Amino acid sequence: MNPDFIKYQAQTSPYPLGMEVSHAIGSYIYDTNNKKYLDFVAGVSACTLGHQNKRVNDAIKNQLDKYSHVMVYGEYSQSPAVEFCKLLAEHMPEPLKKTYLVNSGTEAIEGALKLARRTTGRSQLISCHNAYHGNTMGSMSVMGFEERKQIFRPLIPDVDFITFNNEADLEKITTKTAGIILETIQGGAGFIQPENNFLQKVRQRCTEVGAMMIVDEIQPGFGRTGKLFGFQNYDVVPDIVVMGKGMGGGMPVGAFTAAPERMDLLSHDPKLGHITTFGGHPVIAAASLATLQEITETNLMPEALEKEKLFRSLLVHPLIKDIRGKGLMLAAMTESAEITNKVIFKCQDKGLILFWLLFEACAIRITPPLNISESEIREGCAIILEAMDEVLSE
Ligand SMILES: Cc1ncc(COP(=O)(O)O)c(C=O)c1O
């Protein structure tokens, strides 16, 4: 591992993988020893179209040759951002037609929480146990995993928690609630899908009491579950949709979308209700537009469901107890963190990149680029099975 990496760049865990990246193309990453790794993680669901996708790269280069940052967002009309928001609106149900562009998932969550308070004039926020919504103070306040936030308290007040998929808990959403935020598939918790029309029941309760239903699509979003957004699988229309990660085809970005009259509340009383220097950055917006065009003009979304079937048919092994998730947001579950760790490290040695989930230690993350090929899926699954055979025989 490069000693300067440890010495000068701040680490986020005591055990960084530390691979020295040379270059990456398609579904593969190459290290500085020219070892090739098949990427089943895609920058943790961010590299929607793999690495160095031509359409995304061309959009970035073309935009760089025209202009880059010229003004803070909202003051000038800049076509990549405008075109992105317009195309997104075409793929959103009524009334979700206006989008605020920011720089990351967590910032989009902050904006959405503020919008819920601004819209309702209420303060209470509700989230779910084991939810992950980001790592800034507001998003961390709605994180449902005490161990990771205790040391940073006090966080924002008036936050309450319910259990995902627990219908009885919905009574906690009342006329005091500004908004409930929930992932449409709980990511860090272990790729948990809504059951028994849970999202529809949340929608109904929010409508009854006038609370905002905020869905965090940062991980399921942008085609990964077979629809552009996870909520579109469950026949609900939320009030605020939050996105990030895969939106920029590997570039740093976030956004939240709501009804125009709601979104406009951020521009008055007070004006500048949410501002950010780089939101709507033309180069990032150009990459996001190219990514959205590619996802919506091709068969990548329905193909994600076909690829899910292939993964499920190939990943049959005594060590795999379950495969959770939908489309290309999959988690292979083993019975212990120890087995999961061994499999992930062995696969890395064998040239396949896998990763963990934030709070569920038995899960093996499988979130490849949407345009991964069938033969690449077969190649990677064969490596997983080989690694599992070795773990089993140890
Ligand atoms: C569901 C969900 N919400 C929010 C975030 C935070 O996004 P970011 O890391 O871009 O701030 C993530 C990132 O993993 C996420 O998976």
From TrEMBL:
InterPro entries the record matches: Aminotrans_3, Aminotrans_3_PPA_site, Class-III_PLP-dep_AT, PyrdxlP-dep_Trfase, PyrdxlP-dep_Trfase_major, PyrdxlP-dep_Trfase_small
GO MF annotation terms: identical protein binding; pyridoxal phosphate binding; transaminase activity
Xref: Gene3D superfamilies: Aspartate Aminotransferase, domain 1 (3.90.1150.10), Type I PLP-dependent aspartate aminotransferase-like (Major domain) (3.40.640.10)
Co-factor(s): pyridoxal 5'-phosphate
UniProt entry keywords in alphabetical sequence: Aminotransferase, Pyridoxal phosphate, Transferase
Origin superkingdom: Bacteria
Record-linked Pfam families: Aminotran_3
Family designation: Belongs to the class-III pyridoxal-phosphate-dependent aminotransferase family.
PANTHER family: ACETYLORNITHINE AMINOTRANSFERASE, MITOCHONDRIAL, AMINOTRANSFERASE CLASS III
Protein name: Acetylornithine/succinyldiaminopimelate/putrescine aminotransferase
